[in-house]
C-alpha cells in the first residue's frame, strides 16, 4: 500500500470511529447513586422507574448508575474523588463526613422531608424455627444459654445500630442507671459468638454455618433473609422497643454541579418520596412515611416503640465519641 | 561519555545497558514500592510521637499483635516442615499426576483470598464436613486462632515450596549417593550434606510465608470469628481504623506491621549472606 493510500485509509478509519463514538457521547446525562451494600436489588428496581418517569416528564433520556459498598467505604471513595451525584446511605454519620468536607450542604438534613430519610427501618431479630429459646425482646438476649450473631459495631453501621438499640433498651429498663446498663451490655456482648465485618457476613454465619440462636439486623434485612432462605425455617421477631434506623439521602452538590446534574439529582431523591416509590420500598420491607402506603402495609410492620439516636445519645457525633471510638465504651465493655 | 568511561574504568562489567536498566529499575521501584510507602508515612506526619505510641500500644491492638504473630509463627513453622516435604516429593520422585500436583501448588496464589477464607470457614464450621468430624472431639478450628493459623498456612505455603524447589533441583541426587558411598547413614547424609544447601532457601521461604501471614486479611476474616482480645488480627484493627476515617491511626498500626516485616526480611538476608559464605569456606 502506498503512503497516501495508507493515509486516506486511516483518515477514513478515524472518521468512521468518530461517527460511531458520537451517538454514545450525545449528551445522555448520567446520574451516579452511591449507596450501601445491601441496597443493590432495591435501587435496581427503583432506577428504571425513575428513568421512565424523567423521560415522560422532560422528554430526555437519562441513565442512573449504581455503586454499592459498605456505607463508610463509599463515603471514603467520594472523599477521595469518586464523582457520585447522590448518596443514599444507611448511616447518618457517613453523610455528615461528606458535609464536613464541604461536598454536601451543611443543612442536608433539612433539604428533604423527614430528616432527609425517605424510608426507615429498625433493628429486629431472626430466630430459628418455633423460636426454641423464646426470644421476644432485648432482655432475652442476655440469658446464659443464648448465643447472638450480629456484625461488628466497629466495622459495620448495622452492628452499631444493634449496639445502640440494646443500649437504648437497657437505658429505659434500668431508668438510666449507668452501672446496670453497662452490666447488661457486657453480658449482651459476651453472648456474641461471631463478629463478622458486615451484615451479609453475619447472615452467612447464622444461616449457612448454623451459628447462634438469633441474628440481629435491620428489620428489612431479616425479612428479606427469611423470604430468601425459607419462611418455614426462620421467624422474624420485632422487639417491642427498638431503635429508629434512618436511611439518609443527600445531593453531593460539588459533584452534581460539575457533572451538570443538579436538577436530576434533586428530582431523583424527591422521587423516593412519591407514593409509587414508597410502595416499592415497602415491598422491600422498609418502613415508609406515605400514609396511604403505610395503611396498605400495616400488617407487615408490627407496631413498636422506636427511639431516636438523638433522644438517647444526644447526637450521632456524641454517640460515636462515647461509644465507638478507640478506647471508648464499646472497647471497655469488651475488655476481658 | 568520557566521564562515564572513566567512572567505570577498571570495572569488570561486560554486559552493556547498565545505565538504562538500572534507571528503569529505580523508577519502577520508586513508583510501585516507595511511593505508596511514602504515602503511608505522609499519613503519619499528623501524629505526635505520644499519639503514635498510644495508638500502637492500645490494649486491643496489642492483643491483635499477639494473635497475629502467634498464628503466623505456627503457620510458618508448619509450612516449613510440609513445604520442604512437598518440594522434596516434587523434585526427587516421579509419579503419575506430578505435573498436576506441581500446578496445584500455586493455587493459593491464584485464588482470591476471600474465596479461600469462605471455603475454609464452610469446611471447618460446626456444620461443615471437617467441622462435623472435629467438633465432637472438642477440637474447634473455625472461629479460634487455629482457624486463623490454618488460613495463613493455606495462603502462604507456595512461598516455601517455590523457594526450596529450585535449590533442590540444582542439587543432583549424586550428592547424597556420594555421601552414602562414603559411609554416611540416611540421617547423616540428610542433615550434614543436603540440609546445609537448603537452609538459606528454606529460611527465606519460611520468612516470606510468615511476613505474608502478618498482612493477610481476606482469607482470615471469615474464619477468625473476630472476637475482641481473642481472635482479632492486626489487619482487622487497621480496617477498623479506616472505617472510623482515622487514616493516621490505620497508618500507625500498618507501620508496625511494616517495620516488623522489613526487620525480619533484612535479618534473613544478612544471616543468609553469612551462612552461604561459611558454607563455601569463605573468609567470613
From TrEMBL, chain A:
Keyword Transmembrane: no
UniProt GO molecular function: molecular carrier activity
Annotated Pfam families: SBP_bac_11 (PF13531)
InterPro entries: Thiosulph/SO4-bd
Gene Ontology CC terms: periplasmic space
SUPFAM superfamilies found in the cross-reference section: Periplasmic binding protein-like II
Keywords of the record: Periplasm, Signal, Transport
Top-level taxon of the source organism: Bacteria
Keyword Cytoplasm (UniProt): no
Any Gene Ontology biological process: sulfate transmembrane transport
Gene3D superfamilies: Periplasmic binding protein-like II (3.40.190.10)
Signal peptide (residue range): 1-26
Record localization: Periplasm
Family under the similarity heading: Belongs to the prokaryotic sulfate-binding protein family.
Name recorded for this polypeptide: Sulfate transport system substrate-binding protein
Organism field: Vreelandella songnenensis
UniProtKB/TrEMBL annotation, chain B:
Signal peptide: none
A GO molecular-function descriptor: ABC-type sulfate transporter activity
Entry-linked Gene3D superfamilies: MetI-like (1.10.3720.10)
GO cellular component assignments: plasma membrane
Keyword list, A-Z: Membrane, Sulfate transport, Transmembrane, Transmembrane helix, Transport
Keyword ATP-binding: no
Pfam family, one: BPD_transp_1
Residues spanning the membrane: 20-42, 62-91, 103-130, 142-161, 247-271
Membrane-protein topology: Multi-pass membrane protein
NCBIfam families according to UniProt: 3a0106s02, permease_CysT
Role description: Part of the ABC transporter complex CysAWTP (TC 3.A.1.6.1) involved in sulfate/thiosulfate import. Probably responsible for the translocation of the substrate across the membrane. Part of the ABC transporter complex (TC 3.A.1.6.1) involved in sulfate/thiosulfate import.
Family of this protein: Belongs to the binding-protein-dependent transport system permease family. CysTW subfamily.
Protein name stated in the entry: Sulfate transport system permease protein CysT
Protein's organism: Vreelandella songnenensis
Lineage of source species: Bacteria, Pseudomonadati, Pseudomonadota, Gammaproteobacteria, Oceanospirillales
Amino acid at each position: 500500500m502506498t503512503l497516501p493510500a495508507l493515509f486516506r485509509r486511516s483518515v477514513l478509519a478515524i472518521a468512521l470511529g468518530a461517527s460511531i463514538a458520537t451517538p454514545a457521547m450525545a449528551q445522555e446525562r448520567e446520574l451516579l447513586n452511591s449507596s450501601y451494600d445491601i441496597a443493590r436489588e432495591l435501587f435496581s428496581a427503583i432506577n428504571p422507574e425513575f428513568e421512565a418517569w424523567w423521560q415522560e416528564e422532560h422528554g430526555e433520556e437519562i441513565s442512573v448508575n449504581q455503586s454499592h459498598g459498605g456505607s463508610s467505604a463509599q463515603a471514603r471513595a467520594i472523599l477521595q474523588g469518586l464523582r457520585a451525584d447522590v448518596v443514599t446511605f444507611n448511616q447518618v454519620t457517613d453523610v455528615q463526613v461528606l458535609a464536613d468536607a464541604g461536598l454536601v450542604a451543611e443543612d442536608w438534613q433539612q433539604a428533604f422531608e423527614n430528616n432527609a430519610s425517605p424510608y426507615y427501618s429498625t433493628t429486629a431479630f431472626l430466630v430459628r424455627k418455633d423460636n426454641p429459646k423464646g426470644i421476644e425482646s432485648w432482655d432475652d438476649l442476655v440469658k446464659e444459654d443464648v448465643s447472638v450473631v450480629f456484625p461488628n459495631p466497629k466495622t459495620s453501621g448495622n452492628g452499631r445500630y444493634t449496639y445502640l438499640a440494646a443500649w437504648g433498651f437497657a437505658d429505659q429498663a434500668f431508668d438510666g442507671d449507668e452501672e446496670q446498663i453497662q452490666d447488661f451490655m457486657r453480658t449482651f456482648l459476651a453472648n456474641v459468638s461471631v463478629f463478622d465485618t458486615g451484615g451479609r457476613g453475619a447472615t452467612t454465619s447464622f444461616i449457612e454455618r448454623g451459628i447462634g440462636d438469633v441474628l440481629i439486623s435491620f428489620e428489612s434485612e431479616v425479612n428479606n433473609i427469611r423470604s430468601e432462605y425459607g419462611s418455614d425455617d426462620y421467624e422474624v421477631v420485632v422487639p417491642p422497643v427498638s431503635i429508629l434506623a434512618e436511611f439518609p439521602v443527600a445531593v453531593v452538590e460539588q459533584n452534581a454541579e460539575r457533572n451538570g446534574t443538579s436538577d436530576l439529582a434533586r428530582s431523583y431523591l424527591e422521587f423516593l418520596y412519591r407514593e409509587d416509590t414508597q410502595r416499592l420500598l415497602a415491598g422491600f420491607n422498609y418502613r415508609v412515611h406515605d400514609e396511604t402506603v403505610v395503611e396498605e402495609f400495616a400488617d407487615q410492620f408490627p407496631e413498636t416503640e422506636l427511639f431516636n439516636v438523638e433522644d438517647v445519645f444526644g447526637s450521632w457525633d456524641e454517640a460515636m465519641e462515647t461509644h465507638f471510638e478507640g478506647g471508648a465504651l464499646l472497647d471497655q465493655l469488651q475488655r476481658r | 561519555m568520557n566521564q562515564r568511561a572513566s567512572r567505570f574504568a577498571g570495572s569488570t562489567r561486560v554486559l552493556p545497558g547498565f545505565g538504562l536498566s538500572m534507571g528503569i529499575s529505580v523508577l519502577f521501584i520508586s513508583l510501585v514500592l516507595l511511593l505508596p510507602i511514602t504515602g503511608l508515612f505522609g499519613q503519619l506526619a499528623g501524629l505526635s510521637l505520644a499519639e503514635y505510641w498510644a495508638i500502637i500500644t492500645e490494649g486491643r491492638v496489642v492483643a491483635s499483635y499477639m494473635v497475629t504473630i502467634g498464628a503466623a509463627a505456627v503457620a510458618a513453622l508448619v509450612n516449613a516442615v510440609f513445604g520442604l516435604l512437598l518440594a522434596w516429593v516434587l523434585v526427587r520422585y516421579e509419579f503419575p499426576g506430578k505435573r498436576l500436583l506441581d500446578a496445584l501448588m500455586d493455587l493459593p496464589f491464584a485464588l482470591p483470598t476471600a474465596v479461600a477464607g469462605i471455603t475454609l470457614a464452610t469446611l471447618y464450621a460446626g456444620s461443615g464436613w471437617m467441622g462435623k468430624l472435629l467438633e465432637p472431639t472438642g477440637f474447634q478450628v473455625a472461629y479460634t486462632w487455629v482457624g486463623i493459623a490454618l488460613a495463613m498456612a493455606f495462603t502462604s505455603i507456595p512461598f516455601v515450596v517455590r523457594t526450596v524447589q529450585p535449590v533442590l533441583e540444582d542439587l543432583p541426587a549424586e550428592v547424597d549417593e556420594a555421601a552414602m558411598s562414603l559411609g554416611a547413614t540416611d540421617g547423616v547424609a540428610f542433615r550434614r550434606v543436603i540440609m546445609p544447601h537448603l537452609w538459606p532457601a528454606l529460611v527465606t521461604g519460611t520468612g516470606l510465608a510468615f511476613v505474608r501471614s502478618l498482612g493477610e486479611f481476606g482469607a482470615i476474616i471469615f474464619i477468625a470469628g473476630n472476637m475482641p482480645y481473642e481472635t482479632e488480627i492486626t489487619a482487622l484493627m487497621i480496617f477498623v481504623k479506616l472505617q472510623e476515617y482515622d487514616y493516621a491511626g490505620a497508618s500507625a498500626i500498618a507501620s508496625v506491621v511494616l517495620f516488623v516485616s522489613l526487620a525480619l526480611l533484612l535479618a534473613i538476608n544478612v544471616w543468609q549472606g553469612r551462612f552461604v559464605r561459611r558454607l563455601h569456606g569463605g573468609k567470613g
